[in-house]
Amino acid sequence: MILPEPLQNLVNAFERLPGIGPKSASRLAFYLLRDSSNLGQDLSDALDGFKEKLAFCQECFNITVAGREFCEICADSRRDASLICVVEDALDVLSLERTGGYQGKYHVLHGALSPIEGVGPDDLKIHSLLERAKNSDIKEIILATNPSMEGDATALYLSQRLGGFDLRVTRLARGLPVGGDLEYADQNTLLRALSGRQDMDF
Ligand SMILES: [Zn+2]
After folding, report:
1. What is the mean predicted confidence (pLDDT) over 84-92?
2. CA 76–ligand 1 middle distance (angstroms)
3. Which residues form the Toprim domain (predicted)?
4. Of 59, 74, 102, 128, which residue has the fewest beta carbons closer than 10 angstroms?
5. 37: which DSSP letter?
6. Is it true that domain 68-199 has CATH number 3.90.640.10?
């Protein structure tokens, strides 16, 4: 071991993060070592038990503070309760919220259907979505899964399952980079895809 153990441990931990190679990991660790602004302690405080302090919203399965039943969006009476936007991940909620162009509610599936990876309907928050769809206040469900093979397959499956309900089922307009992630789409592209959404044919 070239580095003293405490420093090496930090480098090893950084290296496990996505997109961080050995060089970047060392650079980050040395940056924290030299830093005089208490960043290391602030990071440590933020990381301490942060997972335990979070929970899933019991309505839409977005992330919320532990102990709260609903997330901020579900609890907000100004949001349009007749619209549900279905996304794969809570990060997608963040992307759509950043556009400022959506006033409805969400439903986070926590993944997409993928036979290759063994992800079936029961592994996603699909049953709870179908339960929500029974509410006659719901007028439209926007399928905003990623424009990837898995995302498209999930949207198709959901549109079939939702076919029997008295509501509109729409899909985000094309124009999002195919194979990409909502998360990486810029705000204007996302807004265009949202406003140009089309009814699903099934
Ligand atoms: Zn919620």
Report:
1. 97
2. 9
3. 82-177
4. 128
5. S
6. no
